[in-house]
Amino acid sequence: MPQLEIDMETTLPPQVVIDALTDFSEKRPEIWPGIDPVLYEVRSVGETQAEVKEGSIVAGMKIWSIEHYDWSVPGIVRWTVTESNFSNPGSHLIATVTPSDVGSHIHIKWSRTGSNLFGKVLLGMIKLMNGRPVASLIRKGLDKMEAGQA
């Protein structure tokens, strides 16, 4: 399974970052620009877990996955694919958020495999680009929150 590790800093406190990662309200697509509101569907939300369908439109194609989110371990949010039209079940992303001198340090472990040719090409490109597309989408969400726009 292709894996990447990405590190970033934000001036936001750790709990604000965790709260944004686990915000499954109608505001979620506003916070995280990689989520198309048309493809966003909350299936269930509990105290420390959720089942959510999220997706984007890439090159005119709808790509989506149903993700199981778990934030039962303080400072860690893990989302795992249960169903997808491009990524294999079990593919996942883990965000570990810790305090830093400026606010928060976010360490992301990304591990995804494509379930079809499109998914293999898409995820292969993300791997070849050292995760820049993933980091860029997360950075945009953090920047919006830092600017008070989300």
Write out key terms for the chains shown:
150 residues; alpha+beta
Please explain how this structure is put together:
There is one protein chain. With 150 residues, the chain is α+β, with helices and mostly antiparallel strands. It has four helices and seven strands. Strands 1-7-6-5-4-3-2 form a seven-stranded antiparallel sheet. The longest helix has 15 residues. It is globular, with a radius of gyration of 15 Å. The N and C termini lie far apart (33 Å).
In short:
The chain contains four helices and seven strands; from the N terminus they run E-H-H-E-E-E-E-E-E-H-H. With 150 residues, the chain is of the alpha+beta class.
List strands and helices in order, with pairings:
Blueprint: E1 3-10, H1 14-21, H2 28-31, E2 41-45, E3 49-58, E4 61-70, E5 76-84, E6 92-99, E7 104-111, H3 117-128, H4 132-146
Antiparallel strand pairs: 1-7, 2-3, 3-4, 4-5, 5-6, 6-7
- Beta strands, count: 7
- Nearest-angstrom radius of gyration? 15 Å
Helical content (DSSP H or I, runs of 4+): 25-40%
Which strand order does the major sheet show?
Answer: 1-7-6-5-4-3-2
Counting helices, strands and paired strands, the structural category is: alpha+beta
Strand content: 35-45%
What summary fits the major beta sheet?
Answer: 7 strands, antiparallel
The end-to-end span amounts to 33 Å
Low-confidence stretches: none
Can you tell me the overall shape? globular
| Number of helices in the DSSP assignment | 4
Order of helices and strands: EHHEEEEEEHH
* Average pLDDT number: 94
